[in-house]
Amino acid sequence: MCLCLTIASRLSENSSTSVLVLEAGQIGDAVASQINEPAKTYYDSLMSSQLDWPRGKVLGGSSAVNGMYLVRPIIEYNADSYGTDGPIHWGYPGFTFPIPSDCKFVSINNTGSFIANSAIRESDWTRSYSRSGYIDSIYTPHILTGATVTGIVWDGSSSSSSMFPASSSDLKATGVQYALSSTSPKQTVNVNKEVILSAGTIGSAQILMVSGIGPKSVLQDAGVDVKVDLPGVGQRLQDHLVTSLAYSTTSSVTTAGSIHTTQSTQSQSPEFMSFINSATAYLPLSSLFPSQSGSSLQSLISSAQSSMQSQLQAYKTSGYKGTGSGDQVDDTVVKGYQSIYTTITDTLYTSPSSGQIELLIALTQPNTIVLQAAIQHPLSMGRMYITSNDVFVSPVLDPAYLQNNVDLQILRQGVKMLDELATSSASPLSQFISGRTNPPAKESTSDDDWDSFILSSSSTEFHPSSSCAALPLSLGGVVDPDSLRVYGAANVRVMDASVFPMEMSTHLGAPTYGVGEIGVGLVRATYEGNKSGSGVNATDNSSSGSGNGSGGSGGDSNSAMAVTVGGMKVDLMIPVGLGLLAFVLV
């Protein structure tokens, strides 16, 4: 998600505010077809198959290359949140397959099955994303593409004159350095007001660390001068892990992938090329472990609760790099992990409205139906860290997938449910399937068989989060939940998926636009005295264009989610990331 374009566009509405966007990627015009035609997400993707955690390095960020799901997280449903003239369009593909009459199109509590809204412009069946919605048609800030942020420049003097409620000892950013390539000289942009990092879960934490903010031992090992010893930077990294099963179809079934291979007139039409996978379901544990096996569900929850202390101890002693060497993880970071862990096991696991597994169906392969299961609230949390003071050297990413065995048990149950949906004669889906191809069908598949398959074949759902968590300092937070200001820095904020303390049951696209609009309200409250947020809907279901961004029916931007973490309302922290970039209020 290119959250920076959302915020930069909104801040540019004030003509007295000068905004510069530094984007590591290019403008994207050379690959416009691959961006704009939704189906090319599957058939001609910009994301290399060799990258396990790809990022959108283009103007528009990951919103230019993602699957376009617009799924609402678990918050109180408000019909007014569906706007009518916002920048980002929501709708459905121009081509689809028969849909059961009882299928839901808008989920009230985000559990159960439904056809998800997608970020599609129905006027021309193209992708609606942050560049087309916020930049091309509304307000244009200054934008410099091909510019990778290499670090923040600090003023060593007191920052007591800052408008933030900051300590006099806090650092003040006076500039941002960038380079056009790893061999190009660094250049500096001066900063009069503040720096807002929106480089994503990987990039924002990396920029902070190479700029001297992060765990002291990590920075010292990488040859970085320590400015602020902030132990939570890069820690408690999380992601949605997904496992895919493939089934061959019967001769009577035609998938979208089959149509695409024909290269027929239909397969080249804008309507067909707008078809993307959008059928999804979120299931609580009570659905994965039905009532007749309630004892196994309670046993699972008890196992998760009883293993917490050993999990926390292992996390602490494994150190900031997860290797067991170097400094142990600070107690505040571990305490934050405990707060998140108990929220999951004691509240979310028992809630009938909290999805623990997402199920998806994909029809974009020829003669094949792919079913997927993805864990939504992992107990396993890892870390990311730098090994060099050079931002062009990739950081180490360790999400600690399935380190907690309870995560594996939940994901296994989701995969087994998928296989039953595909093969049971009682399931309507089974009539369209001739057999399982991956993993190959066998007479009997044991839990050990499923575990081996999950461990060897699972991959990311492209939803990394939480490396710069918005939590109190006492819980190892990196940014202040009320302002998104980085602790120890007077005028630096982070606004992207990295600030979310824990994973949510959702795709991160729609909530990201929400946090962008909320973030605008935080900035305006600082400089303009506007404490009501932007007051503008991000989404629009009209087909008349990109919208003027001037209104919409609104909705309560402060509506609370079902749980809090560390006393913080997590509804305010719902973002995702993009390529290495920052944007600067100058």
UniProtKB/TrEMBL annotation:
GO molecular function: flavin adenine dinucleotide binding; oxidoreductase activity, acting on CH-OH group of donors
Record's keyword terms, sorted: FAD, Flavoprotein, Oxidoreductase
Ranges annotated as biased composition (Gly residues): 546-555
Domain annotation Glucose-methanol-choline oxidoreductase C-terminal: ranges: 378-516
A Pfam family reported for this protein in Swiss-Prot or TrEMBL: GMC_oxred_C
Transmembrane annotation, as ranges: none
Segments forming domain Glucose-methanol-choline oxidoreductase N-terminal: 142-242
Chain segments carrying region Disordered: 531-557
Binding residues for FAD: 58, 149
Requisite cofactors: FAD
Positions annotated as active site in the UniProt record: 463 (proton donor), 507 (proton acceptor)
Domain of life: Eukaryota
Similarity field: Belongs to the GMC oxidoreductase family.
Protein name, UniProt field: Alcohol oxidase
Organism: Dendrothele bispora (strain CBS 962.96)
